[in-house]
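ok so I'm stuck.
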Amino acid sequence: MYIENKSAGPDGGEIIGVARIGRVEFSKTGRSVYYKGRTFQSLNGSGFKANYFDVESHERYWISGPRKDGEDGLYGRRPTPIDEDVREEYWTVIRKLPQKKNQKTT
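replied:
not stuck anymore, here's the structure
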C-alpha cells in the first residue's frame, strides 16, 4: 500500500507528507489497517486529503493501493521509499518493471 502522513506540517494540514510503499494488514471489518506495529482507523470520509488516522498519535494518513503508473502521491510522482519486504513484488507484479526490482525508491 501507499502510506502518506498528512499531519506533518506545522498546521497539521500538510498536502505532501512523508510517504512510503509497504505491506499492511486489514482488520476483518476493513475499518482498521495495521502497519509496522501501528494501528490506523478509517476517517469514514470525513478527512481532508486523508482517509485514516493513527490511533496513538492521531496523525492523519492517506493509505491506498499503489498505482501501476507510480503516480501515488496526491500531486503526482515523487521518489518514495519502498519497504524491503515488498520491493521485488512492487516492481514485478504491480509496476510490471522487473528490471527495476533492485531499486529502493519509486
